[in-house]
Automatic annotation (TrEMBL):
PANTHER family: PHOSPHO-2-DEHYDRO-3-DEOXYHEPTONATE ALDOLASE (PTHR43018:SF2)
Keyword Transport assigned: no
GO biological process entries: aromatic amino acid family biosynthetic process
NCBIfam families: DAHP_synth_Bsub, PRK08673.1, PRK12595.1
Domain DAHP synthase ferredoxin-like: 1-66
Keywords from the named record: Transferase
Protein name: Phospho-2-dehydro-3-deoxyheptonate aldolase
Molecular function, one GO term: aldehyde-lyase activity
Domain DAHP synthetase I/KDSA: 94-333
A Pfam family this chain is assigned to: DAHP_snth_FXD
This enzyme's EC code(s): 2.5.1.54
Amino acid sequence: MIVILKKGATEPAINEFVEEVKQKGLGVHISTGVDKTIIGLLGDTSKLVPEDFLANDIVETAERVSAPYKMASRSFHPENTVVCIGTGQSGVIECKIGDGKTVPVIAGPCAVETEDQIMNAAFAVKKAGARILRGGAYKPRTSPYSFQGLGKEGIKLLEKAKKETGLPICTELMAISELKNFENVDLIQVGARNFQNFDLLKELGKFNKPVLLKRGLSGTINELLMSAEYIMANGNENVILCERGIRTYDGYTRNCLDVSAVPYLHKVSHLPVVIDPSHACGIRWMVGTLAQSAVAAGADGLEIEVHCCPEKAWSDASQQLPPSQFEELMIKLGKYAAVEGKTM
């Protein structure tokens, strides 16, 4: 349920109202916009009558929210959420996702392999205009015999690349037990295979780091938003949604990119939406076209895999762009973004 307060409601009156709501055993989420303040009621509101709140002088209206997700809903939070990545201190670049002015690109190799490999990739993607460095230290692989990542050592190499380039770093978390190694990671990625690992999501809600939440291989939009709700309900509202392709009956690409997810998510949720064209198709020559469609659809950012020598990559060689192609793509994407009045 949401309660919309009248314009000009005083802070003491709002605080008194919030305390009354809390005494009913409900949680409260306050969203203050330019024109209105919205109080979101969290918990079992089935026995509450919306009209009863109108007796309070500061209440303009009250209504039920039909969506099962609350904190991720635009009804609870009409203004777009802007997630800040990086500190802006000690040489680390600050990047904003969801500001409506920029389309930041998260770029780097699928997996961290060696120090030279990640360092070369980091400098290459920064030169081309990427704002965040990605690289998998822990790799969820279909086959147990495939390269599983360097683990903690991979995190250390990413931290070194961050220090050398100033780029914030993004890498995937697979297990709660590894969370202690992510203190210096700027953006924690939850992969498609873990997007409904609810225990993991709860812990990330208690961890003060932005989260890039990927849609599951067969996940619905509602399931993606409910997974975001798990993180937000546990205290962390810095969530970025990521569309990375879903499985369909056709197999000509690795997955099928659901571009329509971008405008729909923007309609029902205030959270930023990023598209990963690399995993969506799994084919190098298609990545650029899908990235362009993502910008045209209004995506708040992109995640693109880049490797200095893709043919020798230890994982996902077929979808990673060499730096020269990535640089060309960034120039082209800049033109697409300019049409929408944005920059990369």
